[in-house]
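lol forgot to send this yesterday, sorry. C-alpha cells for the thing we talked abt
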C-alpha cells in the first residue's frame, strides 16, 4: 500500500514565518517536522494522484489569493494548542474539493468528510499542564491579524511521521 497524501493550504511568507516561530517555540522538537500549515485533508488515497493533480490545478487556476483571519488560540483537547483560522472562502473551497472527491469515488476517512475547522497547530502531543501553560502564554501575547492564502500544497505522509513535499497549486495573485 502506498503512503497517503495530505492536502494543505499554503500561507503567505510572513504568516508562515510567524506561525512557524510559534511551532518552533512550543511544539516538541523531536516531533516538529513541518513549518506552519493548515491541513485540509489528512488521508487522501495515493492511487488518485492524477485526479488530484488535475482537479486541484483547475481549482487553483481560477482562484485568487485571499485573506484569512489568524484568530485566537484554543486548546486542542488536553494535549496541545492551535490558532483558529477564519475564512468563509476557505470553508467554501474545502466543500467544493470535498464534493468533487466524493463525486469521483475517492474513499475518505470520517475526519476528512467532516466540516473543516481550519487551524494551525502550534503545539501537540504534550501533557495537559504544559498545554494549559502554553494557552495562557498565547492568550496573553497573541494579537489577531490577517494573513493570505496563496495556494494548496500536496504532501506524502511517510512512515515515521515526516512529510514529503510533492507539489504546489498556486492561486492567481491579486496585485497589491
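and heres what i got for the seq, position by position
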Amino acid at each position: 500500500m502506498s503512503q497517503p497524501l495530505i492536502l494543505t493550504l499554503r500561507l503567505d511568507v510572513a504568516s508562515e514565518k510567524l506561525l512557524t516561530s510559534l511551532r518552533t517555540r512550543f511544539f516538541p522538537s523531536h516531533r516538529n517536522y513541518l513549518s506552519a500549515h493548515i491541513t485540509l485533508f489528512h488521508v487522501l488515497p495515493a492511487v488518485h494522484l492524477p485526479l488530484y493533480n488535475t482537479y486541484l490545478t483547475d481549482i487553483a487556476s481560477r482562484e485568487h489569493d485571499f485573506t484569512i483571519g489568524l484568530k485566537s488560540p484554543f486548546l486542542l483537547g488536553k494535549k496541545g494548542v492551535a490558532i483558529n483560522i477564519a475564512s468563509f472562502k476557505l470553508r467554501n473551497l474545502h466543500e467544493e474539493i470535498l464534493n468533487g472527491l466524493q463525486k469521483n469515488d475517492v474513499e475518505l476517512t470520517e475526519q476528512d468528510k467532516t466540516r473543516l475547522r481550519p487551524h494551525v497547530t502550534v503545539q501537540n502531543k504534550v501533557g495537559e499542564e504544559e498545554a494549559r501553560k502554553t494557552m495562557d502564554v498565547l492568550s496573553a501575547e497573541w494579537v489577531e491579524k490577517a494573513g493570505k492564502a496563496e495556494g494548496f500544497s500536496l504532501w506524502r505522509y511517510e512512515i515515521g511521521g515526516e512529510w514529503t513535499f510533492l507539489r504546489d497549486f498556486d492561486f492567481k495573485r491579486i496585485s497589491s
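The domain at 5-170 is CATH 3.90.1140.10 (Cyclic Phosphodiesterase; Chain: A,). anyway ping me if u want another try
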